[in-house]
Fold this sequence. Notes:
This protein is 0% helix and 51% strand. By secondary structure, it is mainly beta. It is globular and about 40 Å long. The relative contact order is 0.33.
Amino acid sequence: QVQLVESGGGLVQAGGSLRLSCAASGRTFSSYSVGWLRQAPGKEREFVASITGSGGISSYADSVKGRFTISRDNSKNTVYLQMHSLKPEDTAVYYCNLGQVWGQGTQVNVSS
């Protein structure tokens, strides 16, 4: 069973940057696409970005295109979400997802 652990969240001012990490256990990590989703208070969980197992194809929500970059290092069993030009509306708990497996989430707060 794969387990996912997110880290890297925190408080940042609008316009700032953060890099989130999702560390996975399990030897088959590189075979699977991994996604980042987020949930703001009072809102439904929404898709942010995803990346294929090889890292060759990535997808983004329109709201983060050009500001966020998803990447992975399969030698470290880790997926990253580099976030630039952060906005207050990016404030949410960010979750890493692989199939039916979810991490515990990491809080991102962007102050105006």
